[in-house]
Write a structure and sequence with these properties.
The complex is a heterotrimer of chains A (285), B (252) and C (397).
Chain A lengths: L2 H36 L4 H5 L2 E2 L4 E2 L2 H32 L4 H15 L2 H15 L6 H25 L3 H9 L4 H30 L27 H11 L3 H36 L4
Antiparallel strand pairs in A: 1-2
Helix pairs in contact in A: 1-10, 3-6, 3-8, 4-6, 5-6, 6-8, 7-8, 8-10, 9-10
Chain B lengths: L5 E10 L2 E11 L4 E5 L6 H7 L10 E9 L2 E2 L7 H7 E4 L10 H11 L5 H14 L3 H4 L12 H14 L4 E5 L7 H14 L4 E5 L3 H7 L2 E6 L2 E7 H6 L4 H7 L5
Parallel strand pairs in B: 3-8, 3-9, 6-7, 7-8
Antiparallel strand pairs in B: 1-2, 1-4, 4-5, 9-10
Chain C lengths: L1 H38 L11 E5 L10 H8 L17 E3 L1 H7 L2 H4 L6 H11 L3 E6 L10 E2 L7 H6 L3 E2 L7 E2 L2 H32 L2 H16 L2 H19 L8 H25 L3 H9 L4 H12 L1 H17 L2 H6 L17 H8 L8 H29 L3
Helix pairs in contact in C: 1-16, 7-10, 7-13, 8-10, 9-10, 10-13, 11-12, 13-16, 15-16
Classes of the chains: A mainly alpha (285), B alpha/beta (252), C mainly alpha (397).
Chain lengths: 285, 252, 397
């Protein structure tokens, strides 16, 4: 064996070790939280109100709150994001406008989540007088994930073979017909993957909801979009850093972290499943 | 009834600064097959794409001159491009069925053109698949995805799809170049059949194919329409030396 | 039929166009709202609303900055000559100090005599400085009211103390927060960079399909875990570990923040660097191999240099992500607003400060505006990183 080869073998094995370390980091974090969290999970934990200064009971209002925020932000951000991507990919040629929109979208994606929190508070809570409410939080979160939806949708649209568009035009279909009947159905699985990813993001974000919707302790369910709610990620933060009795609240925190992790895991699995099914279906022979 | 199905007058076309077509004058008679031949980049596909205004979709294309189909100026202001594309069917190099069922592929053109009568659509779909000589192979699986068909079947499906909207003229851009010889043979037979009802213009790289299926052949070279005539004449006694060289395989 | 079709097409196009403008409008609104609230800070003094600073009418000092007021009341400044006055010892009095100077009888029912007493006291004592609510200020007050200098941009950026609750004048010096943010982020990148790059190279060039099929979803999951969960993990695992390992009083340190941020920045670095490495043309690599270079040599001498700008973009984006991260850092760094000296001290970052304090800052007050001003700093930092990335990316390799 030459020195050259020896060097290569040593280097590549070292690379493998480092990569496996990354895998280990994930499994340590997941494993730790799941092992500690699973003990707390039971029906009561998922469906009861918190009690005894949040050291007992469940996290039901936080689950409901997070679901409200997911629904609220997606109702608004998903259509706008998809339409925006359609406009950019299907209507705009390479031009100043397209470059401009793309730059702005990238800039929006780069804004830190806490700045979204500041912005949401200034615009929705104070200026538009929504107060701390589901609608203020949803709009803030929605604007934050808009770039994610736009980017994944654009990728999805780009991966639709141009010959399908041309084939449709050649049959006398208009642009709108081509988009709605050919392009979107083909791109749908990948668009949905983007939707799922952004749901994951929305369900885990804390900073943007701190000052727009999240309630410290609110043992009742919301009755309208102008109500405050608890939310899972903020609840976890509260339990670990600012509860009245943090030691006793620890099991509750593990349970909440477990639920958050499960949401992420399930969404990831779902996205991969859709991707796999779609990959099989559209494969040309 | 105008004399010509297609008539092109003094057509110059540019991609940006590059002149892709130079002073083209051309006509095609009804119920004939015309083959466009010539080396790559000679402008034959570009001309073909003028007939259903597919070049509109490409950036930086501009042109002067006139194109008439059935006596109508297809670049006139009041022309509905979508309607034009319905009247002029097109079959592409690579089969491009939509990822929908076989039935839906053929019905697509009808649906986007506003047809909603179920019975009419069904009749038209079956009719078109039969005309495209595909019926026996797919009649039991109309609801199956078009993606499951073989390449040759997919191409005949695309022809059926084009036929369903009752085009006056069918354009074929190297329809057999991505297919095996057996499938190619089937497509050629089909073109021969279709000639009775339609006018067809076909772009091809394959000299024998042009010889087999076409009544007229037009030879293009570097954006010029060098000559066009009865296929037999072109292949046996061409006027231009460039045509002769091409046909005998000296270049291209 | 035809005109209807056309109208539908036009309308659809209009709706789609409007949607596509939402991101641009949002960026614009973010800028407007941040600056509207944040710039207001420099129009204000940092003394609490409704408080005035009064001195003896013979005092020569004409204006004080908020830092000076704070130092006076902290008794770091004890003589008027230090702030440009006569050589008299300063006697700082808050309203509570004042009230305790007199008996209840003197004060009268409901402190009705307090205003008169204050005026008298200020006039009798040449060294006094008093912070008094406007409501306890007698009409035609005989003493001198000292105007406070407005907060300057320089003072805000370079001030080394951040004490928003100081009484009577708050101090807003963002320097320790800016430094804290940079420290924690740079620490994170130093940790994440080697690991991230090596993993990216391994995935793009060395790993077989099977291993890549494991690594891809692992990285996706890492980027999907919410930041509070990282913070929580850091708090219950890393912080005690660091405390024990380095025998510290508290484990909440810049180091803990850097480690957590490093893990969080890994997916960004790996994904972008891997994409960049993959863009190296196969022909280039084959040319190197054909000359007898080993796979590893080709990697070092051809592939990585070719992908350089993409790799730099990955690094910058990683830093950008770390700079803006809030919750995880808030939970593990201890949040002491002091200029950091080592990684084993608590630090406080800009996002953490905003998250921790905005809830308590009265709407529209000086503190509120100061937090928005921090938001501007953060926004500008991330904007610079984004612009850098796009310049690096568009540069030809």
């Amino acid at each position: 064996m030459t020195r050259k080869q020896l060097k290569q073998i040593i280097a590549f094995n070292f690379f493998r070790l480092v990569s496996l370390m990354v895998v280990c980091i994930l499994f340590i974090i997941l494993g730790f939280i799941m092992l500690k969290g699973i003990k707390v999970i039971n029906w009561e934990f998922l469906t009861a109100m918190p009690k005894d200064g949040m050291t007992g009971g469940g996290i039901f209002p936080a689950i409901v709150g997070t679901l409200c925020l997911i629904a609220g932000s997606m109702i608004f951000a998903f259509p706008i994001g998809v339409m925006s991507a359609i406009y950019m990919n299907e209507y705009l040629k390479e031009s100043f406008l397209k470059k401009f929109i793309r730059t702005m979208t990238n800039n929006l994606a780069g804004i830190p989540s806490i700045v979204f929190g500041l912005f949401g508070m200034a615009l929705f809570v104070n200026t538009l007088k929504f107060g701390d409410s589901i609608i203020a939080g949803s709009l803030t979160l929605g604007l934050m994930v808009l770039p994610v939806i736009i980017r994944t949708t654009e990728e999805a649209l780009k991966s639709v073979d141009d010959s399908l568009r041309i084939g449709s035009y050649a049959l006398g279909a208009t642009r709108l017909q081509t988009i709605s009947k050919v392009v979107i159905p083909v791109a749908m699985p990948n668009i949905l993957t983007g939707l799922i990813l952004s749901i994951g993001r929305v369900s885990g974000e804390t900073a943007p909801i701190l000052f727009t919707v999240a309630a410290y302790f609110l043992p009742k369910l919301p009755s309208g979009i102008f109500d405050q709610v608890m939310a899972l990620p903020y609840h976890l933060y509260v339990l670990t850093t600012s509860g009245t009795n943090m030691e006793q609240a620890r099991p509750m925190a593990y349970g909440t972290a477990f639920v958050l992790i499960m949401i992420v895991l399930i969404l990831n699995l779902l996205a991969n499943l859709i991707r796999r099914i779609a990959g099989k279906k559209t494969k040309m022979n | 009834m105008p004399d010509y199905k297609v008539e092109v007058k003094n057509l110059d076309l540019f991609y940006g600064d590059f002149q892709a077509l130079k002073k083209i004058n051309f006509t095609a008679e009804p119920n004939t097959v015309t083959a466009f031949i010539g080396p790559s980049g000679c402008g034959k596909s570009t001309l073909l794409r003028m007939f259903n205004r597919m070049n509109d979709l490409i950036d930086g294309v501009h042109f002067t001159g006139e194109v008439y189909i059935d006596g109508n100026d297809i670049f006139a202001k009041n022309i509905d491009v979508d309607n034009l594309r319905k009247t002029v069917g097109m079959v592409f190099q690579k089969p491009n069925p939509f990822p929908k069922s076989i039935f839906e592929n053929v019905a697509y053109g009808l649906r986007v053109n506003g047809v909603s009568d179920k019975h009419f659509i069904e009749k038209k779909v079956i009719d078109s698949i039969k005309k495209a000589a595909l019926w026996d192979e797919v009649k039991d699986k109309l609801k199956k995805s078009a993606m499951e068909l073989s390449g040759g079947q997919q191409q005949r499906l695309c022809i059926a799809r084009a036929l369903a909207v009752e085009p006056a003229l069918i354009l074929m851009d190297e329809p057999a170049s991505a297919l095996d010889p057996i499938s190619t043979g089937k497509i050629e037979d089909l073109i021969f059949e279709l000639k009775n009802q339609y006018s067809i213009i076909i772009v091809t790289h394959n000299m024998q194919q042009a010889g087999r299926v076409s009544d007229y052949t037009a030879f293009f070279y570097m954006g010029e329409l060098v000559e066009w005539n009865k296929t037999k004449t072109i292949f046996t006694s061409p006027d231009d030396i460039r045509t002769q060289n091409y046909i005998t395989g000296r270049f291209g | 039929m035809k005109p209807v079709k056309r109208i539908i097409e036009k309308t659809a196009k209009g709706v789609l166009f409007t949607s596509s403008m939402v991101t641009s409008v949002t960026v614009l609104l973010v800028v407007i709202f941040l600056f509207r609230e944040g710039i207001g800070l420099f129009n204000q003094t940092s003394v609490e609303k409704h408080l005035v600073i009064a001195v003896n009418s013979a005092n020569r000092v004409s204006a004080l900055s908020s830092t000076e007021v704070k130092s006076i009341f902290n008794q770091d400044i004890t003589n008027w000559k230090e702030v440009g006055g006569d050589d008299i010892e300063i006697a700082p009095k808050t309203i509570d100090d004042m009230a305790s100077l007199f008996t209840e009888e003197e004060l009268g029912e409901g402190f009705k005599n307090l205003a008169i007493l204050i005026e008298k006291y200020v006039e009798e004592n040449p060294g006094v400085i008093a912070s008094i609510p406007e409501s306890y200020l007698k009409k035609e007050f005989k003493g001198k009211l000292i105007p406070l200098k407005k907060i300057s941009v320089r003072e805000f950026l370079t001030g080394t103390e951040w004490i928003p609750t100081a009484h009577p004048a708050a101090v807003f010096g963002a320097w320790p927060l800016i430094l804290g943010t940079l420290w924690v982020s740079l620490g994170a990148i130093l940790l994440a960079l080697p690991i991230g790059l090596i993993t990216a190279i391994y995935m793009a060039e060395v790993a077989g399909q099977r291993l890549r099929n494991i690594l891809k979803p692992v990285i996706e999951l890492l980027s999907g875990i919410p930041s509070v969960v990282y913070g929580f993990f850091g708090l219950v695992v890393l912080v005690p570990l660091i405390q024990k390992l380095f025998k510290l009083d508290v484990g909440e340190t810049a180091l803990a923040g850097s480690i957590v941020l490093a893990i969080m920045a890994l997916p960004t670095i790996i994904t972008i660097a891997e994409d960049a490495i993959r863009t190296t043309p196969r022909a280039l690599k084959e040319a190197s191999l054909a000359l007898g270079a080993s796979h590893f040599q080709t990697l070092l001498k051809v592939t990585i240099p070719y992908a350089k700008s993409g790799i730099i973009a990955a690094i910058i984006l990683g830093i950008g992500r770390a700079v803006g991260e809030t919750m995880a850092v808030l939970m593990v760094t201890g949040n002491a607003s002091v200029v950091p000296h080592t990684f084993l001290e608590p630090v406080r970052t800009i996002p953490a400060t905003i998250a921790a304090e905005l809830g308590e800052a009265p709407f529209g007050g000086t503190h509120f505006k100061a937090l928005f001003a921090l938001g501007i700093i953060l926004f500008i930092m991330t904007f610079i990183f984004n612009t850098l990335v796009s310049t690096v990316k568009t540069r030809k390799p």
